[in-house]
Amino acid sequence: MRARSRDTGRRQKKLGTKPRDRKRLPQLEGGLFLSDGGIETDLIFNDRLELPQFAAFVLLQDGPGRTALKKYYRRYAGIALAAPVGFIFESPTWRASRDWGRKLGFTERALCEANARAIGLMAELRGELESSGTPMVISGCIGPRGDGYDPGTVMSAAEAETYHASQIGVFARSEADMVTAITMTNANEAIGIARGQGPRDVAGDLLHAGNGRPLPTGQSLCEDIAQVDGATGRAPAYYMINCAHPTHFENAMPEKALWTKRVRGIRANASRRSHQELNDAPDLDDGDPVELGVEYREIPARHPQITVLGGCCGTDHRHIEQICAACIEPA
């Protein structure tokens, strides 16, 4: 992404934040990095917390909510520490953008404060937990303007850049090392985020629709990556696949295709159900954690550049434990 302006740098100094070298993400230098599971489904179904509009960032508003988030992240970071492997703190800000914030009654100022507070919490936890064997990265999480399973009205890249500018700007002035755009449903929105004025490194998390067609718009994974890279000069540091079971995308990445080298992370669902089935289901399908770990092990075996592993809908610490165990032990 473009370099930060001098004005941004001055504001950063005033706030007293000290982001790490954003040009050197440790997960790009080798070694396994874990992240968390499906934060919203985990907190709602396992911790019995209320998240209006599926928005985890609302928990930052009071003491009990912050305590719940700390417990959540410590649980996952502890798995990485025990291994030991690297860990990525993905901030609980997937819904903390303008349109979703308005639905939740947040003013623009309050939303900016919530995003800053989220990164502050990640920094606090990193300061508490990081070790020499477990390097930790702070990622500012950005979600789609529309719903994760439905792109709705597709914005132009310029509109997407404008829409996400405020949230990215907060991350630029914080201790976030990178931005991750999660469950992006179309290339235009990913392009707009990658062009934004924020932390240099961006990871694009692509929503997979199954049957070899990764996005709800119908584009293939290869087509989407080519479009985003072509429009941004390969600005994203890497891409990830998320919100689908491994069996849904196992045939979408030919082993010898050069473009697959741009995919370095997986955040899969616990369930084999389709997006429509998951959307309509009244219950949580958490699948089989051991089985999911085995299926994850096959992915880096075919694509060794994939070293960032986390979870999405239905996954919790049990799944991440099994994924970690399967992927650091000999097959």
> Distance between termini?
38 Å
Mean pLDDT: 86
Number of helices: 12
Domains, number: 1
Q: Main sheet: which strands, in order across? A: 1-2-3-4-5-6-7-8
List SSEs in N-to-C order: HEHHEHHEHEHEHEHEHHEH
- What Rg, in angstroms, do the CA atoms define? 18 Å
Q: At the third CATH level, what is the topology name?
A: TIM Barrel
CATH architecture: Alpha-Beta Barrel
Low-confidence stretches: 1-17, 208-213
What is the overall silhouette? globular
β-strand percent reads: 5-15%
Let me know the CATH homologous superfamily: Homocysteine-binding-like domain
Structural class computed from helices and strand pairing: alpha/beta
Total strands: 8
Reading off the top of the CATH hierarchy, the class is best stated as Alpha Beta
Q: Which range best describes the helical content: under 10%, 10-25%, 25-40%, 40-55%, 55-70% or over 70%?
A: 40-55%
Largest sheet properties: 8 strands, parallel, barrel
